[in-house]
Amino acid sequence: MQINQSLPPVSDFSEADVELLEQFGDFKSAFLQRLSKNIFGQEKLLEEILAAIFAGGHVLLTGVPGLGKTRIVRLIAGALALKFSRIQFTPDLTPSDILGSSILTESLHGGRVFDFLPGPIFANVVLADEINRTPPKTQAALLEAMQEGQATISGKRYELEPPFFVLATQNPIEHEGAYPLPEAQLDRFLFSLTIDYPKASDEVAMALATTRESTLPDSQTVSRDDVLRFQGLVRRIIMPQQVAEYATTIVRKTRPQMKISTELTQQYVEWGAGPRGTQAILLGAKSFAALDGRPAATFDDVERAALPALRNRVTLNYLAQAEGMTVDLLTCKILRETRAELNAESNGIH
After folding, report:
1. Disulfide check for 316: which of 137, 241, 258, 320 has CB 3.0–4.6 Å away?
2. Domain count, the chain
């Protein structure tokens, strides 16, 4: 496949969208400034979460206990002025605990009727805390909501009010009483993000902030209507054909069945990313471009979105686990190889 690195000029971005793009940049600055008072050393993570939210996707946060996963989600929900709900996943949680149920009540006019009591899924921001601590049957209760923005309960369909996104957390070090997420569920998350230990200076700041008298949170930085407008803006960010082809090439190289796949892919990968992986990269790239105030996505945006978009969509085999190969390492090698091919083609070296 030939990839032309020269991009077409940006000509079909309206003046209204240019103005909205500037407002988006102002929001990003205010948002990060607000959260920096309570979250230390996680600027990259916060931007990745923002990119997923405004791309209309869901996020899976993985990290050991005590790194502030739940706190981050709560602060983000507060900054976005959206309806927030938290679901603590446990082994005895049932689908009705998430979706809601119909109960028999006395009617005002006599007799009895079924009234629907909505569950915590009926919110704009849903924190699915320790999502891997409940059996797959209950985990699957989120599938329809995450994919279609609706819930079917007792044969009746209920629409979820947009915007709707799930921010789920999981602990990677405990296995007793935990249930790994099925591949179909993992594929519904736009991004899979990891939280690592903070730097020493950030850990000192975190410890000081959380052991003194708490202060009142700042006012919200953006309304629900603004969130919807920004999500629409991200969809209108220009995606050049060459950049889309570049993202598709990266995803196809994760599939060992493809002739285009790399030697490492054939050696370590059991199943590569599907077409939803390409969609996630393109949406993520558009969102990163908008966050940076640019009306068109670039090759760099694709590379920035590739790691979080593929981390939950590539399944490694036992050999990879035995030899310490990870999806991140594999993806980085694919990115370097594909970028080298792109540069060679742009320089006329075939």
Report:
1. 320
2. 1
